[in-house]
Amino acid sequence: MVVVVCLTSRDSYEGERTQCRDNRLLGEFELNGIPPMPRGQAELVTTFEVDANGLLKVSAQDRASGRKASISMLCAPHRASAHSLSAGITNSVGRLSSAEIDQMIKDAEQFKQADKDFSARHEAKSDLEAYIHQVEATITSPEIGMKLKRGAKGQVETELARALEKLEIEDSTSDELRKAQLGIKRALQKATAGLR
User: Exposure pattern of 69-92 as b/e (b: 16+ CB <10 Å)?
Assistant: First the structure.
């Protein structure tokens, strides 16, 4: 079984699926004191190490502040202590049985297309959100925003509004999100075509 570990702000999971909710919680830890940063600039380096004894060590470090937290675990079913930066879990009672592993593999195969669609949508959504932020910063910057003609800037803003509407719709496909991004890109190219 290939173990995929998902890391949210404090939880570590194992399993074959792309969404954490479909996998098994191994433990949790917290990384506090990360300074606020503009979207897309924060870097959290996550490392997964497995030693010869099967002990998994998950660590996360914020590049900007240098803050680091980690947890070591041996597939225990209960959560680690959230108040310490490094917590050990050594109870092997909660390890997965062969039947549970087989079921996880079957589920992963059964939901393979749904997981692929989720990953594609998630990536397209993240790309679109970052691009919207970038374009908003561009058209409001004094260097470019003041040089844009009202009609051209209005068209970019209209495309931005359409894209934001697509982001609000839960059922938007990855293709629809990419088309929204393309609409913004085309409007921005037209608006900035004559600028130096």
Answer: bbbbbbbbeebbeeeeeebbbeee
